[in-house]
């Protein structure tokens, strides 16, 4: 997140004009999404013997098991599809959507990390 935060002032116009910044932000969003889904899959498998078939299903199951809050779950919904668009270039990439998800991710990704830390701490006392 430290690296992505360096670009927090980059907006849609700049993403359209500066391919280097666009690639940095897109790659950062992909990496962040993959970290979230790796953590999600690990927790579900190791603690709940749950194996999800889709990214969205894994987020839903994490929420159902009270690992993440309803609020965070609602903010993260759609991340799997967005990640797939970035990785596989489905239907082209909408720069406005990248800019919007980037700004959203700057708030949501640290919140995910914080909620996971709280959950991990709660597991130590069980």
Topology of this structure?
Elements: H1 2-5, H2 12-17, H3 19-48, H4 55-64, H5 70-76, H6 79-88, H7 95-124
Helix pairs in contact: 3-4, 3-6, 3-7
CATH fold-type name? Four Helix Bundle (Hemerythrin (Met), subunit A)
The proportion of strand residues reads under 5%
CATH architecture: Up-down Bundle
What class do helices, strands and sheet pairing give? mainly alpha
Mean pLDDT across all residues, rounded?
95
**CATH class category:** Mainly Alpha
Shape: elongated
Number of helices: 7
CATH homologous superfamily title: bsu32300-like
Element pattern in H and E = HHHHHHH
* Poorly predicted parts: none
Radius of gyration: 15 Å
Description:
The chain is mostly helical. The chain has one domain: Four Helix Bundle (Hemerythrin (Met), subunit A) (Up-down Bundle). 77% of the residues lie in helices and 0% in strands. The chain is built from 7 helices and no strands. It has helices at residues 2-5, 12-17, 19-48, 55-64, 70-76, 79-88, 95-124. Helix 3 (19-48) crosses helix 4 (55-64), helix 3 (19-48) crosses helix 6 and helix 3 packs parallel to helix 7. The longest helix is centred in the N-terminal third of the chain and has 30 residues, at 19-48. The protein is elongated.
């Amino acid at each position: 997140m430290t690296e992505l935060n360096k670009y927090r002032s980059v907006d849609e116009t700049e993403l359209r004009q500066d391919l280097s910044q666009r690639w940095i932000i897109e790659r950062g969003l992909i990496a962040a999404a993959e970290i979230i889904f790796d953590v999600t899959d690990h927790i579900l498998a190791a603690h709940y013997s749950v194996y999800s078939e889709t990214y969205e299903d894994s987020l839903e199951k994490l929420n159902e098991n009270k690992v993440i809050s309803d609020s965070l779950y609602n903010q993260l919904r759609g991340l799997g599809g967005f990640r797939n668009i970035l990785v596989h270039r489905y239907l082209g990439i909408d720069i406005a959507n990248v800019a919007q998800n980037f700004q959203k991710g700057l708030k949501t990704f640290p919140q995910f990390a914080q909620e996971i830390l709280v959950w991990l701490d709660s597991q130590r006392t069980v």
